[in-house]
Amino acid sequence: MAAPKKSRGASGGQGKPGRSLALILIAMVALIGGMFLADQPTPRLGIDLAGGTSITLEAKSEPGQESAVNKTNMDTAVQIMERRVNGLGVSEAEVQTQGDRNIIVNIPKGTNSAQAREQVGTTAKLYFRPVLTVAQGMPTPEPSASSSGKPSPSTSPSVSASEGATATDKDKGKSSTTPSATATTQGRAVTGALKADSTPSPDASTKPKADASPSSSAPSAEEQAAATKLQKQFAELDCSSKELRSKAARGVKPTDSTVACSSDGAEKYVLGPSEVSGTEVDSAKANFDQQRGMWIVQMEFTGKGSKQFQKITSKLSQLQQPQNQFAIALDGEVVSAPSVRTTLSGSAEISGSFTQQSAEDLANVLSYGALPLSFSEQSVTTVTAALGGEQLQAGLIAGAIGLALVVIYLVVYYRGLAFIALLSLLTSGILTYTLMSLLGPAIGFALNLPAVCGAIVAIGITADSFIVYFERVRDEIREGRTLRPAVERAWPRARRTILVSDFVSFLAAAVLFVVTVGKVQGFAFTLGLTTLLDVVVVFFFTKPLMTLMARTKFFSSGHPWSGLDPKRLGAKPPLRRSRRATAPTDPKEA
User: Fold this and answer.
1) Most buried of 171, 223, 382, 500, CB within 10 angstroms?
2) Counting Cβ atoms within 10 Å, is residue 300 exposed (0-12), middle (13-18) or buried (19+)?
3) What are the respective helix, strand and coil percentages of the chain, to the nearest 5?
């Protein structure tokens, strides 16, 4: 009676394979349905397949601030760059760190790459500084008092942002400034900027008596030396090239007076310490002023910023040009220097020779904040869509060739078992495709060429799991067991081997994903994903399907084309063992 119970137990040990197959079928239907509901029928392609632009930026540290290039600041810079690029309407850009100092920005096709390059690399450190002196942007022999330049009306098509800029009081709904002149006396009131008051000190003849303060007293020796140094820098400042303009603003602290160039290099300025920081800008947007027929950038301040802006404009409104101007300095360059005639608060406006694009760009960088670090552009690589299509086609051809070779091998060597293997490969392919499509909008996964290579490698890994199981079953048949017991006895041994093999593959993929950056991570991610799916497919599809196939006559009878023919495998007939096992019962019957 023990033997029949064991036989029923063995049969029950095979479980209910139909449940496992139904479960994985439901999962496949759910994933396919989710793929179409999410309107993502295909995986999102990376820049190397879809085409686009790849920009490499390197973080730069200011002298004495080498520790500023750290993981926290790099991660913050990545987040700000992502928001800026997304602000351009690009939802599929990739921004990621590479090593300790580099950031890779991948922008897909269909995007203005030149505009995006300017957006991601702009530090966008914004400061509102009082103007002390302004002159033409060429170096002068000495900072002697002389009048230079000539005014340019703000309606001129060639006017720069700094020439035609204005500031308005939004609450009062009227313009409160006029275009600033481009000529004034050099070196005027530079000393006053270095005092504790941090605002320009005008001539006694132009300043009301009630506004007398310590800033009108004689400067100390240190202040005089600093003023002399600043005047020398101003006289030698050359704004004729972008490199010289960026060099002038390098390493300047917000609390220090400084020299700066206008964004077009036409003027150069001596500026006092920052009165309002760009961090106090709550929002910024570009609008078209119908009355003046020009594009402007309107800024809204935070509560703190509004008070600071009100304070500085109140002081500047009592002064004469150029000291009644405040400079809007972005990354060390003066993009606008409007004059102030009344106290302002709450909001400000930047106007000038903006086009729609330049106004929107400025509003975008102001809205999403300043980068914590400065970056230099190391390389820009353009990948055409045609080249990406060729790479994808070549990758698919390679995958098809690899799959065909695997199929031929399975059919020739395993015959009928190849049917189980092919269905398992098909199931794995469907799960992989649907997950890749859904992971695009979910986590930003993009299928690039290395990822395609990872999927091709996964074909071999998945087929290897089937082969391990099939060989274990064959070993059991060689021992003289019939197919159904062989399938169940072979599974524990094959399961351990498959889990160990997949664990090693997944560990390698995880390490590769952690220690690498960029496109190589696509290979590691795809390899890890397909390795996990291999475990799911083998446990919930291949093993249950093998159990069901073992109950069919084609496989259980050992058909020559089943791949499990005992004679071809060199197995001893199981009947001989069964006769020897029943021999002791014959004498009892006698």
Assistant:
1) 223
2) middle
3) 50, 15, 35
Structure tokens at 425: 């490969």
Q: How far apart are alpha carbons 180 and 162 in whole angstroms?
A: 8
pLDDT in tens, 233-288: 888 888 887 777 767 666 677 888 888 888 778 888 888 888 888 778 888 888 89
CB contact at 8 A, 266 and 163: yes
Q: How far apart are CA 378 and CA 358, in angstroms?
A: 24
Chain Cα centroid distance, residue 273: 35
Residues of the chain with pLDDT under 50: 1-13, 143-216, 575-582, 587-590
The confidence score (pLDDT) of residue 90 equals 57
For every residue of 382-448, DSSP letters joined together read EE-HHHHHHHHHHHHHHHHHHHHHHHHHHHHHHTTHHHHHHHHHHHHHHHHHHHHHHHHHHH---B-
Identify any residues that bridge with 57 across adjacent strands, giving them in sequence order: 103, 377
For the segment 165-179, what is each residue's pLDDT rounded down to a tens digit? 344 433 333 333 333
Q: Count CA atoms within 13 Å of residue 508 on its CB side.
A: 11
Q: What is the largest CA-CA distance in the chain?
A: 141
> What's the pTM?
0.53
| Residue 538 confidence (pLDDT) | 93
Tell me the residue type at 337: A
According to DSSP, residue 258 is labeled: E
Place of tokens 């290039």: 69
Q: What is the pLDDT of residue 285?
A: 86
Single-letter amino acid code for the residue at 406: V
How high is the pLDDT of residue 177?
35
Chain centroid offset of residue 30 CA: 29
Report the pLDDT value the prediction gives residue 432, as an integer from 0 to 100. Answer: 92
Cross-strand partners of 294: 289
- The pLDDT assigned to 346 comes to 75
Long-range Cβ contact pairs of 175-180 (< 8 A, separation 24 or more):
176/340, 176/341, 176/342, 176/344, 177/338, 177/339, 177/340, 177/341, 178/339, 178/341, 179/151, 179/152, 179/153, 179/154, 179/339, 180/131, 180/134, 180/321, 180/322, 180/325, 180/337, 180/338, 180/339
Q: Is 241 helix (H, G, I), strand (E, B) or coil?
A: coil
- Class of residue 291 by CB neighbours under 10 A (exposed 0-12, middle 13-18, buried 19+): exposed
pLDDT score, position 242: 73
* Cα 534 from Cα 536, distance rounded (Å): 5
Phi, psi of 481 (to 5 degrees): -85, 155
Strand spans (E) along 272-413 = 276-277, 281-289, 294-301, 326-330, 333-336, 347-351, 374-383
